[in-house]
Amino acid sequence: MQEVQRVTGTLISLYNEANDVVQSEGRRRPAGCEFRDDVLANLESDAPVSEWSRGFTAGHLWLEASWDAYLPEPMDEEMGAVLMTLGFFASRSLAEDLVQESGRADVPLEHHAAKFRDLFFDALSGYAQISMVIRRAM
C-alpha cells in the first residue's frame, strides 16, 4: 500500500507539473526536456528530449486503455499527430520508421527532426487540450 501511495503521489506531481507547463503563458518545456542544438543528436538515447519522449510514450500507453472509450472520434486523427510529434524523438529507429510510413523518405531525416522539434510545443498544448476533453467526458 505504501508503494501504491508513493507511485500515485509521484504520478500526480508529474501531472500537476505538466499541467502547469501547459497552462503557463510562455512556451516553457517540461523539466528534463531539453533539445540539443544538433537536431539529429536529439535522437540519441541519452538526449534529454529522447529520454522524455520515451517516458511520455510509456505514460501515455498507461493512460490509453482508460482514455480510449472517452476520446471523441473526431479527435482520433489529432491525437495520432500529437502522439507522433511527442514520441518522434524516442529513438532514431522509431523516427526513421515514422518517416518511412509517411511516404516522405526522400526528404532527409534531419529535415523531419527539425519539423517535429518546431511542432513540439504545439503538440504539448494539443495533448493537454485533448486530455481536458477526455477528463470532462470521464
Structural overview:
- The longest helix has 29 residues, at 109-137.
- The chain has helices at 2-23, 48-67, 76-87, 92-102, 109-137.
- With 138 residues, the chain is an all-alpha fold.
- The relative contact order is 0.13.
Please give the alpha-carbon distance between the first and last residues: 26 Å
Low-confidence residue ranges:
none
Largest sheet: none
The H/E string reads HHHHH
Task: Please count the beta strands (DSSP E, at least 2 residues each).
Answer: 0
Based on CA inertia axes, which overall geometry fits?
Answer: globular
- Secondary-structure class: mainly alpha
Number of helical segments with 4 or more residues: 5
Q: What labels would you give this structure?
A:
0% strand; 5 helices
